[in-house]
């Protein structure tokens, strides 16, 4: 191995290829040195994390929405400043959780299910023409 090609992978999962002339392999797409990090990520861990995020945000919506409705239904509760503050907090939590759910269920799920190497497909985010 040529001294120019010395590479230490911290996790021992990233790989660089040393060519015969003693330089690192260049990516044909970018023309830059390319390191293979495909072994570094475990897709199953990301899918489990995705399921946990969807579950926690769903629980937040399912519990906070009825609480808001109850607080707003009773006139005596609506008039208290403390309850108004709690309703604002709960509405905020519901809106944030709903936005996260939309993101997770549309883009993240599609990205995890679409593996370009296997299916030859791009994810929804990669097919988006805006910003290209």
From TrEMBL:
InterPro entries, sorted: GPCR_2, GPCR_2_extracell_dom_sf
UniProt superkingdom: Eukaryota
Keyword Disulfide bond: no
Keyword Acetylation listed: no
Transmembrane segments: 52-73
Keyword annotations from UniProtKB, A to Z: Membrane, Transmembrane, Transmembrane helix
Protein name: Calcitonin gene-related peptide type 1 receptor-like
The encoding gene: LOC101846556
């Amino acid at each position: 191995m040529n001294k120019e090609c010395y590479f230490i992978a911290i996790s021992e999962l990233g790989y660089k290829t040393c060519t015969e002339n003693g330089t690192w392999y260049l990516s044909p797409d970018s023309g830059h040195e390319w390191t293979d990090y495909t072994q570094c990520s475990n897709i199953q861990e990301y899918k489990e994390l995705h399921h946990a995020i969807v579950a926690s945000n769903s629980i937040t919506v399912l519990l906070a929405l009825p609480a808001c409705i109850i607080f707003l239904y009773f006139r005596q509760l609506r008039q208290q400043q403390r309850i108004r503050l709690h309703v604002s907090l709960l509405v905020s939590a519901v809106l944030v959780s709903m936005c996260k759910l939309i993101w997770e269920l549309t883009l993240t799920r599609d990205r995890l299910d679409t593996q370009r190497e296997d299916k030859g497909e791009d994810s929804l985010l990669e097919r988006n023409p805006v910003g290209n």
